[in-house]
Specification:
With 174 residues, the chain is an alpha+beta fold. The chain is built from two helices and nine strands; from the N terminus they run H-E-E-E-E-E-E-E-E-E-H. It is globular and about 45 Å long. The N terminus is likely disordered.
């Protein structure tokens, strides 16, 4: 009986060792979101590219307003399915008034990070943005609201220096 038990335990141990480890759950804010529309005969695309490591989320974004593109970088904290953007910099516009270090014109009044009240959340595979005092609810959300998740930003994506910054930021070196 003892050799049979040892043989069964050996087979069981071998089988357990061969089972794949469960996949780590993906970080919900790790990825790309983009929406495009036609404006004066040209395709205009806005995007957010995010990297999440634990509760830290870093991102680069671009949007079109007032006949121009605006680009920003941001750092935030994820809690309970909501990403609170803690600080932001970039082209001054509706999102921030502070240029990112190394990207400001000589006469820039503000360079560095500015606090942000923006929060990000997801509903039905789409990304939504709201201020910190507005609710983050999927109630009333329809299929065409928010920014859809995409596999790739293609040619519309950020410049190489923004991708380099995003990787460094996700590693804790912004």
């Amino acid at each position: 009986m003892r050799p049979v038990v040892i043989a069964l335990l050996s087979l069981a141990a071998a089988g357990v060792a061969a089972w794949p480890a469960p996949a780590a759950s993906p970080a919900p804010f790790d990825g790309a979101w983009m929406s495009c529309e036609t404006y004066r005969g040209s395709e205009i695309c806005s995007y957010k590219l995010l990297a999440q490591r634990g509760s830290r989320v870093c991102g680069v974004q671009r949007y079109f307003a007032t006949n121009a593109y605006y680009e920003q970088r941001f750092v935030g904290t994820v809690t309970g399915g909501v990403a609170q953007i803690d600080k932001m910099c970039g082209d001054p516009g509706s999102e921030t008034d502070t240029y990112c270090p190394g990207r400001a014109p000589r006469d820039a009044a503000k360079v560095g990070w500015a606090p942000s009240r923006e929060r990000l959340f997801q509903c039905r595979g789409r990304l939504f943005s709201t201020s910190s005092d507005a609710p983050t609810s999927c109630r009333g959300v329809t299929r065409d609201m928010g920014i859809p998740r995409v596999r790739s930003l293609g040619e519309q994506g950020p410049q190489p220096e923004d991708r380099t910054w995003l990787a460094a930021c996700a590693a804790g070196r912004e």
